[in-house]
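Honest question from a wet-lab person: if I give you the sequences of every part of a complex, can you actually get the arrangement of the whole thing, not just the pieces? Trying it with mine:
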Amino acid sequence: MSQLFDYEQQREAESAAKVRALEALLIEKGVIGSDSVDTVLGHFETVAGPFNGAKIVARAWVDAEYKARLLADTPAAIAELNLAQGMDGAEGEHMLAVANSADVHNLIICTLCSCYPWPILGLPPYWYKDPVFRARGVREPRAVLREFGVPVSADTEVAVWDSSAQIRWFVVPERPADSAHLSEEQLAALVTPESMMGVALVQLPAA
Amino acid sequence: MKLQHYLGGLENLGPVDVEKQVFVQPWEKRIFGIHTTMMAESAHLIDALPGYPMDTLPTAFKNTWTWASLRTGAEGMQPFEYFKFRYYEKWLMGISGFFVDQGYVSGDELKSRAEHYRREPDAPLPDQPNPAIREQIVRYLQEGDSGLRPYDAAPLFSDGQRVIVADPVAVDHTRLPGYLRNKPGTIVEVYAGAFAYFVNTGLDGIGEPMPVYRVAFDAADIWGEDKSEPNTTIYADLFEAYLQGPARS
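Yes, you can. This is the full assembly:
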């Protein structure tokens, strides 16, 4: 066991050294700037991230007409909100929303790689990139959802969206019951990236 | 067939990994940042809709680097190797291999510099900021690289039509999930306009602008009535080259 652990530590240390060496050489050779990588990473901390998707979902929950517009013309509805510039930028040029209901539960997947709506959800979590999720999500989505703690009744259709071309899909999850007392901002705080990909339900914090 | 193209539907894999982190090691952020900088500097962006200043950008990077580059590398891996490495480990292998193959860095200098950082993990990076590249990264992330292009011909298929998915030769890279090949589905949306892909995939058939369709598949039509979960629909967005039809009902 300890040998395995040593090996893993060594593997990570070697990857860390290799990527640092690559970045250093690319900077020296003028391929990238020393501020390039941090510029990319900063974008995903302040501009693009699941905080945008959460605001979109919360608005859809409190405003039924907005929700209808979001489902009918997703980019135009996103543009209505006062989000940062770039919500139709890289990996979000063509986004579409689908809504969960009592009739249908949506699950977003990318079986060929890891397509994900960057501007409003940021970067994909490991589970989304995992070959096991990508393999099983289209074959036995209900079993996969159960493993995520989301049982879906046989009466509810499961719709799986395989992101294979230009569209980046996301889910408007169902608003939690007994949440009428919460403000739009409080609702947004409950919305997780997983719920906007369909592998989690939005829940009220335990009292 | 390449296993990477046929991941969808593979069985006997055990439970899913529910890890919610985006990066599980700090070094993974750096290779993601290098990749995204390369995409923002890619030579092909000279033709992108936002009109990026690729001819004047002060960078030594002169290649095209897109998602297709990274995906082609991952799909070209020996399939059993593919499963041995974590997501960003594959990126690091593919991207460092690209820079060596293209002559930007030599294998020897990469190795000796990596040994240096292995001995001194906190040794600093060179300090050579590049404001023009920074500006291009921000613009690229904000304005993107849509494949939407003009197209004169009418789409071959229409909303509601039954189709069968084609089974073209997958050369180096495809956007057709293997599990859908030869399966019957129904077109539920003809997307407006036409979409180019980053590269021409050869006999696989995409690259030039063409219509894209949203196709709905009954899970039972893909996996078989007894081998699929009930009441399940799978949707995929498929380039026109990936469809034939109409299906015999």
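Two things worth pointing out. Chain B touches chain A through 101 residues (CB under 8 Å). The CA atoms of residues 4 and 155 of chain B lie 30 Å apart.
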